[in-house]
Design brief:
The chain has 507 residues and is an alpha/beta fold. Among the domains are: 36-208, Glycosidases (TIM Barrel), CATH 3.20.20; 336-506, Sandwich (Immunoglobulin-like), CATH 2.60.40.1190. It contains twelve helices and 22 strands. The chain has helices at residues 3-6, 26-34, 46-49, 59-70, 96-113, 146-151, 155-166, 182-197, 217-228, 254-273, 309-315, 317-323; strands at 12-17, 37-40, 74-81, 120-125, 171-176, 204-207, 210-212, 233-242, 278-283, 336-340, 347-349, 351-354, 360-367, 371-379, 395-401, 414-420, 425-429, 434-441, 445-453, 464-474, 480-485, 501-506. The strands form three sheets. The chain has an eight-stranded parallel beta barrel, surrounded by five helices. Strands 10, 12, 15, 16, 17, 20, 21 and 22 form an eight-stranded mixed beta sheet that branches. Strand 8 (233-242), helix 10 (254-273) and strand 9 form a beta-alpha-beta unit. The radius of gyration is 23 Å and the shape is globular. Bound molecules: (3S,4R)-3-hydroxy-2-oxopiperidin-4-yl beta-D-xylopyranoside. Residues 41-42, 125, 208, 238, 292, 356 line the site of (3S,4R)-3-hydroxy-2-oxopiperidin-4-yl beta-D-xylopyranoside (XIL).
């Protein structure tokens, strides 16, 4: 039994690929057997079809569309309006009117060209911020993107209306990541509700579904339940589950394969429960080696195209969950590094929570009974602190959970602070921590030193503390374009210590 057959009565099973995957060969054979929907992983993105104003390059996009249709599969369009992988001329140094014209011309040409061929378009991609305070006021939650700056809050509505006019038959999606997070879930809900009430044609919500081993299936279900009330269809548009804790390994251990398969199966059994609203589940790639997150084993197939355990698990997810119930009790171990009084293992801060490139770094610590000394080396080739928010500047966030309680709320022993490359310190959460910092500009970026006096503990040999580092990367316009973490890939390290990594302090 192949995937698409196993899901015939449920929803489409898609994958995202470059056009060359549809050339003759083992990969094409596998795609034809397992999948019935194709998303262009990159070649339909604005920068690839219109890098220069008015010069359209459709060769690759044409190829993927025609081969997909020739092979009897459904073609999905991704994406028309996005703040990434789009040419700057579209939205920089332009008036509102010019930016709208750029958006319209792009849509007319791209959606127009593939009219009748694309079943569904991801019209707008990722319009929301990562940390949202008041989701009901969804406009205040909009990402400070160049589209927003150039056009204003109605750019989303304008994009949807235009695509509806150009290709009225296509199903139009709003697409975003982390839609299982409560505040982003709600902001999306309020936006889609309001726009639909105004008569804007939004037919679907795309939950990208870039998950990891800390993702709770319940949070995914909560979002499906809420979106269902909007009378839209739902697709999981970019599904993968990274095993962040296995980064650096050559392959997953047997135990890790099982844990990953269990989570795959748990989440897929939820999708099956909601087959009345779920139209399609697309995995973001075929095999671990060519995935956009190739260092973290996120997909269904190995590099040699042999199926992983998670592939088998989702063929009959309920059965797999039932037979492996033992796994339920196990939680994923946080990444743990050893810190000696004068030396430590290196911490890598390179797990992107948004984007796939941008500033990364390494850190080393030392400790005494009184304090923890942290040194973070950031690799960032252009420094900017224009934003009024420290987390949108080139900056380092440091998060400490002294009693390693891994809790969903901050307590007296928890604190979070940000230091930007100019050595400006902001306490983001936690009462009166005692912190001294210093920053040095280096050839490759900047180096942050922080001395943190312990508030509630006097550590001894073997003490474990919760610890997280975040590197924020701003672009030249002062907008944050990437976030890299040590262990906790949620956006909520400033509110919850539940997913932090750990330091074990040793003599
Ligand atoms: C990613 C591709 O997988 C990479 O090959 C490319 O380098 C960057 O973009 N959300 C999206 C996708 O909507 O378009 C992104 O795809 C992954 C995150």
């Amino acid at each position: 039994m192949k995937l698409k057959d196993a899901y015939k009565e449920f929803f489409l099973i898609g994958t995202a690929i470059p056009p060359c995957s549809l050339n003759e060969g083992a990969r094409l054979d596998l795609i034809k057997k397992e999948f019935n929907a194709i998303t262009a992983e990159n070649v339909m993105k604005p920068i690839l079809v219109q890098e220069k104003k008015g010069e359209f390059t459709f060769e690759e996009a044409d190829k993927i569309v025609s081969k997909t249709l020739e092979n009897g599969m459904t073609m999905i369009g991704h994406t028309l309006c996005w703040h990434q992988q789009s040419p700057e001329w579209m939205y920089t140094n332009v008036t509102r009117q010019e930016a709208i014209e750029n958006l319209y011309t792009h849509i007319e040409n791209v959606a127009g060209r593939y009219k009748g061929k694309i079943a569904a378009w991801d019209v707008c991609n990722e319009v929301f911020n990562d940390a949202i305070e008041n989701p009901k006021d969804w406009r205040s939650a909009l990402r400070n993107s160049l589209w927003l700056e150039a056009i204003g809050e109605d750019y989303i509505e304008l994009a949807f209306r235009k695509v509806a006019e150009i290709d009225p038959e296509a199903t139009l999606y709003y697409n975003d990541y982390n839609l299982n997070f409560e505040s982003k879930r709600e902001a999306t809900y309020y936006m889609v509700k309001e726009l639909k009430e105004k008569g804007v044609k939004i037919d679907g919500i795309g939950m990208q579904g870039h998950y990891n081993m800390a993702t709770s299936p319940e949070s995914v279900e909560e979002s499906i339940k809420l979106f269902k009330t909007l009378d839209v269809e739902i697709s999981i548009t970019e599904f993968d589950i990274t095993f962040n804790e296995a980064q650096g390994q050559e392959k997953l251990t047997e135990e890790q394969e099982k844990q990953q398969a269990f989570l795959y199966a748990s989440i897929f059994s939820i999708f099956r429960k909601y087959k009345d609203v779920i139209k399609r589940v697309t995995v973001w790639g075929i095999d671990d080696a060519t995935s956009w997150r190739a260092d973290r084993f996120p997909l269904l197939f190995n590099a040699d195209l042999s199926p992983k355990l998670c592939y088998h698990a989702i063929l009959e997810p309920e059965k797999f969950v039932k037979e492996n119930l033992m796994e339920l009790a196990k939680s994923i171990e946080p990444i743990r590094k050893t810190v000696y009084e004068n030396e430590s293992e290196q911490i890598n801060i390179n797990q992107y929570t948004m984007a796939w490139e941008g500033a990364t770094g390494t850190a080393k610590m030392t400790w005494s009974k009184m304090c923890l000394n942290i040194c973070v080396d950031v690799i960032d080739n252009h420094l900017n602190a224009d934003s009024k928010y420290p987390w949108e500047q080139d900056s380092v966030g440091i998060f400490i959970d002294e009693n390693a309680a891994r809790s969903h709320m901050f307590h007296v022993d928890d604190y979070a602070f940000i230091v930007n490359y100019k050595n400006e310190l902001t306490i983001v959460n936690g009462s009166n921590p005692n912190i001294t910092t210093n920053v040095e500009i280096t050839d490759t970026g900047y180096r942050v030193y922080a001395e943190v006096k312990f508030k509630t503990i006097k550590p001894k040999d073997g003490t474990i503390i919760g610890f997280e580092i975040q590197i924020n990367d701003a672009d030249r316009s002062g907008r944050r374009v990437s976030v890299a973490k040590f262990c906790d890939t949620t956006e909520y390290s400033h509110q919850s210590t539940a997913n932090y990594g750990q330091l074990i302090l040793k003599n």
